[in-house]
Amino acid sequence: MPRHLLAVEHTKIRALREQAGLTPQELADRVGVTYRVVVYWEEGRYVPEARNVRRLADALGCATADLTGTPSGSETLVDLRYAAGLTAEEVATRLRATAVGRDLFVDAHKVRSLERGRQVSGWNWRKPGHTGRLVQQLATVYEVPVRMVMDAWMRTRPADEPPRLPERERHGPPASAVEGWEGLNERQRVYLGEILRDDQMTETEMWMRRQNQVRVPPAKQWRKLPFALDAPSEVVGHTRLQQRLRSAGVHDQGAGATLHSLERLGLIKVTKDRVEVPGVGEVDRTLVEITRRGRACARAGLGEPAESAPPAHLLSEWLWGVLLRVAAAGPEGLHESELTGKSLFYLAVGYRPKRQAHPSRGFIELRPRMAPGDTHVLEYRWHTTALGQQHIASYLHVYMEMYPAAASPAQ
């Protein structure tokens, strides 16, 4: 009998079938197999093939990980293939239709060797540039993000030099952004530019607060920038944005009209709230928030490079900082209460941003700290996984260049 790299827990098939309210025959009809095959699966006498694992999951309304018991954020290359419902032969056929598949002379045997962590014959398989192109094609074949294939590759083949993904092409500002800027009058340009500057300054302040482990409100709150207070300026003073516009010589009675014209163009959003001012009481406050379109328009007009996302397999500055915090804790780890929020859904084993979303990176995990004699669990602490440590070691030099203000694990 052929060796199966991915084990489907047969007891789960029956449990999930009953949970879905299906009889064995109904499940067989949905998957496209016989009643006897389903019975054999549930008894553990047969192991479903890759194609049938995907069909089983679809029929039962679950993820393939629910059948295999693979925690979210710990997928290997074979997990991705089974989740896609493809045999090694089918993957090889699809890859051979691409330039990199032909360069690597991909066949089913090489796909299986790749998944088993064995050496794959062929000189080009030792070249990170070629394997990086292969990672991109596997992401297309399996219909998952490139980062998932890269992580699965490094879990499956930790001794390999990491594949090197092709660099993204750099493009100038979108034509629509340039056209939007050119359609503004001088006064509107100054307003939009100063709002962008204030947004950037606020973003830097929030980043510094995170570095000092000070609570940061959600971005949907702090991106709403105070523009004006509905009270005499000699009493409440001027906001930072008003001060900027005063320095540019364009802060006057026409401010409201300019804001609303920018809002009509979809470049900013204008909202109101009420705040307590010492010695005055509650007053109305005008808030402005630059939109994605407005940010692109201002950057194009001011000659700033477009905001670029990190390469597909790397982390944002925020998530990189979280990973470094856990790594810096060393063998002791971080107490589970020290790490909360959305970062867990992108970094921790067993998490995913949303139920149907792609799983986390699996760079950190909770481990129990046992009492003397292993009688019970004292607490749980966050630690970096083997993949998390490998990711740091492989890409530290890249992150130091991308995010020079971030601390290194040794700091």
From TrEMBL:
Annotated region described as Disordered, given as residue ranges: 158-180
- SUPFAM superfamilies attached to this UniProt entry: lambda repressor-like DNA-binding domains
The protein's matches in CDD domains, at most eight in alphabetical order, are given as:
HTH_XRE
> PROSITE patterns from the entry?
HTH_CROC1
> Which regions are flagged for Basic and acidic residues bias?
158-172
The HTH cro/C1-type domain, residue ranges: 13-67
Which Pfam families does the UniProt record give? HTH_3
**By its UniProt entry, which InterPro entries does this protein fall under?**
Cro/C1-type_HTH, Lambda_DNA-bd_dom_sf, Rad_response_metalloprotease
Q: What is this protein called?
A: HTH cro/C1-type domain-containing protein
